[in-house]
Amino acid sequence: MKIFIDTANLEKIREVNSWGILDGVTTNPSLVAKEGMDFETLVGEICNLVNGPISAEVMSETANEMVDEARKLVSIHENVVIKVPMTEEGLKATKTLADEGIQVNMTLIFSAAQALLACKAGARYISPFVGRFDDVGEDGMRLVSEIMDILDSYDYNTEVIVASIRHPIHVTHAARMGAHIATIPYDVLKKMFKHPLTDIGIKRFQDDWAKMSKKQ
Length: 216
Ligand code: E4P
Known about the structure:
11 helices, 53% helix, alpha/beta, TIM Barrel, binds erythose-4-phosphate, globular, single chain, 8 strands
């Protein structure tokens, strides 16, 4: 499974990229707004940090304006992927952009029906938001399972980016379902390292090694 980081923060991207396991980056308008930087400059900086798909979202509401905005964004760097919201206008824009060879990540996917339409339109990626289901007491991973069932039956050139991740179990469940990508917030990535038994085991090895060294 590919691992993307779900942030627009350059420091966090830089730190996680140093681990050697990062395959791409997703941003969204809320994540970009937190950074207080010029959008296109920020996207360019991210592209210079990570050699992989970098999702940047259009804010226009009509298909024609989305397409125009997308063409500008992809001129920043060859790795820019255009995030388009799942709307009728977004679907039309996705079809136009896909036909031009521009990679689209259709986002704000909350149903298998939406996912199917996005695949039909030629989206290179689709982003089901699992955490926002969990936030209201539902099981977001069920949607991923439904989408993977559909993709298993057809040869769409679409990869699933499991998004809106709240904890490491979302990541491992996504991997067990065969999802192509998980886009993971920095804090969740840091939690993936941690297990108390690992810490206890390291301490025990260090203590036993120290005892042995004293005897020699
Ligand atoms: C992908 O980048 C999505 O925009 C993001 O994962 C949404 O996460 P949230 O539901 O925590 O806002």
